[in-house]
Design brief:
Elements lengths: L1 H25 L1 H15 L2 H5 L2 H21 L7 E4 L3 E4 L19 H4 L2 E5 L8 E3 L4 H5 L9 E5 L9 H13 L3 E6 L8 H26 L6 E6 L1 H13 L8 E5 L22 E5 L6 H5 L14 E5 L19 H25 L6 E4 L3 H5 L12 E2 L15 E5 L12
Parallel strand pairs: 5-6, 5-7, 7-8, 8-9, 9-10, 10-13
Antiparallel strand pairs: 1-2, 3-4, 3-6, 11-12, 11-13
Keywords: Calcium, Disulfide bond, Metal-binding, Secreted
Subcellular location: Secreted
Pfam families: Lipase (PF00151)
Length: 423
């Protein structure tokens, strides 16, 4: 690491400075604040004391912020775009937040993103059947059955619907029950810059809701039997879909948020993020939550700590996960690869945890209600009390909210599969 790290640090810093001046000179309206903030970080005592690996990653992150500033600059702060059948999307109202959402971006045209819905059932475990909105034959000729529950898996930032974890979750679900399992792929709209990906979650959520309503109208489906399982940005896609499906007495059955994305969502209005009103039952698992400042320190923070469900699980405190400090030598190589792995390990761990709870329903994933992880570790919350304990993951819906929301549950888990509770 030593010589290579020192060699890489200098050109990265030079490239950042060059890019930052480019941002200021050509796109001063939005990027100047980003560059000023970046300058403070680069000259801070904390930055100087970090090792080269961490400094390189911070430089790359700051470059990403600069690119986001370039993308959204030069346009008016308040804008609106409308798409046929989906309505209008605006940067006004609750979506304008100068502190938590400083860069305002509108979602892209859904025809450009072109999301896909790939159906799997016990009759076609390994072969996808693509369901197409407004194409009745695509459903009629598939194995979709409105009489069984439907699970929709929704990926997050820079991911896709055919990734390894998506496949593993699909197989685990079909082994566990007779379901329609749909893998949503929106990989044409979830890339850089991050600000655009966050905006696109709104239009993808609208498309998911539109798709479910169409299945109800044409094939006798019932939104109450739908369970959306979303990771990172996918959790908020689920929330936007659920919000649109909350009409009158009707409501989406369940949403599971797997480490819902934090940046641009934490501490925003409930309309902007996943919240308990988006489904009959909303559960969230937090594995990488922390403040935005901690992202700059590269100690986590891609998720959020704010409770967003009827019940919110915080395994190992919800900020960082065991065995995420050092990457496995057989799967990750290089300075950048190792750093990226450390940065994303806790955020991605939630996917393996959720899969384990599906595949191992008899294992112990019991979590205890508690005000904080500190109280939990001090032994003050080792009984279920009047709130009752809940099982993290697939069986969470067995817990009854009884009008309560944002109930925090804590547990300690192992650092390897099946991530069973150590409490």
């Amino acid at each position: 690491h030593g010589k290579a790290a020192r060699w890489l640090h200098a050109p990265l810093k030079f490239f950042y400075k060059l890019s930052s001046h480019y941002c200021v000179n050509l796109y001063s309206s939005n990027s100047y604040g980003t560059v000023q903030f970046s300058s403070i970080v680069l000259h801070s005592r904390a930055f100087v004391q970090l090792d080269n690996n961490m400094r390189q990653s911070i430089l790359l992150l700051l470059l990403g912020l600069c690119v986001s500033s370039i993308y959204s600059s030069g346009e008016s702060t308040f804008r609106e775009v409308c798409y046929d059948g989906l309505g209008c999307f605006s940067t006004r109202g609750n979506f304008y937040d100068s502190v938590n959402r400083p860069i305002q971006v509108l979602p892209q045209d859904p025809d450009r993103i072109r999301p896909t819905f790939a159906l799997y059932t016990r009759r076609n475990v390994n072969t996808a059947q693509n369901l197409v909105y407004n194409n009745r034959d695509s459903v009629r000729k598939s194995n979709f059955r409105s009489s069984v529950p439907t699970k929709i898996i929704i990926h997050g930032f820079t991911d896709n619907g055919n990734s390894d974890w998506n496949k593993a979750m699909k197989v685990a679900l079909l082994n566990a029950g007779d379901y329609n399992v749909i893998q949503l792929d929106w990989s044409q709209g979830n890339g850089y810059p991050y600000t655009l990906a966050t905006a696109n979650t709104r239009v993808i959520g609208a498309l998911v809701a539109q798709f479910i309503v169409w299945l109800e109208s044409n094939f006798g489906a019932n939104r109450e039997n739908f369970h959306l399982i979303g990771h990172s940005l996918g959790a908020h896609v689920s929330g936007y879909a659920g919000e649109r499906l909350s009409t009158g007495s009707k409501k989406l059955g369940r949403i599971t948020g797997m480490d819902p994305a934090g940046p641009y969502f934490e501490y925003t209005h409930p309309e902007v993020r996943l919240d308990p009103t988006d489904a009959r039952f909303v559960d969230a698992i937090h594995t990488d939550g922390d403040s935005t400042l901690s992202i700059i320190k590269l100690s986590g923070g891609f998720g959020l700590m704010q409770p967003v469900g009827h019940v919110d699980f915080y395994p190992n405190g919800g900020k960082s996960q065991p065995n995420c400090n050092e990457p496995p030598s057989d799967s990750v190589s290089g300075i950048i690869g190792g750093t990226v792995w450390r940065m994303t390990c806790s955020h991605n761990r939630v996917r393996a945890m959720m899969i384990s709870t599906i595949a191992n329903p008899r294992r112990n994933y019991v979590a205890y209600p508690c005000a904080s992880y500190e109280d939990f570790k001090a032994g003050r919350c080792r009984t279920c009390g009047t709130t009752g304990c809940a099982s993290m993951g697939m069986r969470a819906a067995e817990w009854r909210p009884n009008g309560r929301v944002n109930v925090k549950m804590f547990l300690d888990t192992a650092g390897t599969e099946p991530f069973e509770s150590r409490g």
